[in-house]
Amino acid sequence: MNASELILNYDGSIYHLGIRPEHCAPFIITVGDPERVPTVSQFFDRIDIRHQRREICIHTGKLGNQSISVISTGMGTDNIDIVFNEIDALFSFDLNTGKPLHSPTPLTFIRLGTSGAIQANIALDSLVVAKGAIGFDNLMHYYDPKMSDHPLAESLHAHMGNPKKINHPYYALGDESLLAACIDLGMQQGIIATNAGFYAPQGRHLRTQKVVDSDNHHLSQFKYNNSVITNFDMETAGIYGLSRVLGHKAISVSAILANRINGTFSKNPDQAVHDMIATVTSAIKEGKL
């Protein structure tokens, strides 16, 4: 592998993350906000490694019998592209030689994030687990263009009627076994829409004008095989898409802080996030995830 492709720092660590294979466990919780990493790791039984480089913070330790890492990705699928490819490289290449390992390590990713619902019946502070993710960004077009050909993506594209300058959506699935485990924990199942931004791409206009005719109400009315789009985020489609391409397992859990259809926002968002983290880390410790 050329040095311009698999880029390492002077200490042998992977370029952007600044870590080596021994710094990361193959079971990984991802969060967007680096300040949320210690909020997650406080539930660990032991923290062995703390490291931060740019917006990427990682804590690695033990949760029950499970070796585990929590890492911040920053916001957006552009950051997911960097973080997931570099974590994958830690477990797929010999960084000393640049050669692929004979047996890459399969990884498990659990995203814990916040989200806005676009169905009126989804309660604030509830948890929604995404069985699939729609990408309105363009990341997976560079990796697996067939994801744009999924019947759900084709049907949604026709439903939205967006101009050609807006990206054709793609669709990627989460891991079925992790999805079933989250449903057993009482989470609501849904389909998440991943957008390339927080404001206009998610229908928010403070001082700007709309350039597309469709809106959140139009998106909320879309149905495919009795499934509806439940909520928004900025990372899950990239997480699901890259995990599928690279052979890893991933699931995305969202604390619903806003309901865009009802125009409401959580009165205690910090508590909602804390409860989500407590639920998931407890399930991991008990071997349920």
Question: Could you give the topology of this structure?
Answer:
Blueprint: E1 27-31, H1 37-41, E2 46-53, E3 56-63, E4 66-72, H2 77-92, E5 93-94, E6 99-100, E7 108-117, E8 127-135, H3 151-160, E9 170-173, H4 176-184, E10 188-194, H5 216-220, E11 223-224, E12 227-233, H6 236-246, E13 249-259, E14 264-265, H7 269-285
Parallel strand pairs: 1-4, 1-7, 7-13, 8-10, 10-12
Antiparallel strand pairs: 2-3, 3-4, 5-6, 7-12, 8-9, 8-13, 11-12, 13-14
Q: Please report which band the strand proportion falls in: under 5%, 5-15%, 15-25%, 25-35%, 35-45% or over 45%.
A: 25-35%
Mean pLDDT over all positions: 95
Helical element count? 7
Shape from CA axes?
globular
Which second-level CATH architecture applies? Answer: 3-Layer(aba) Sandwich
* Biggest beta-sheet profile: 5 strands, mixed, barrel
Helix % is 25-40%
Number of strands: 14
Structural class estimated from helices and strands: alpha/beta
Number of domains: 1
CATH homologous group name? Nucleoside phosphorylase domain
CATH class: Alpha Beta
CATH topology, what is it called? Rossmann fold
The topology string of helices and strands comes to EHEEEHEEEEHEHEHEEHEEH
- Low-pLDDT residue intervals, each spanning 5 or more residues: none
Oligomer: single chain
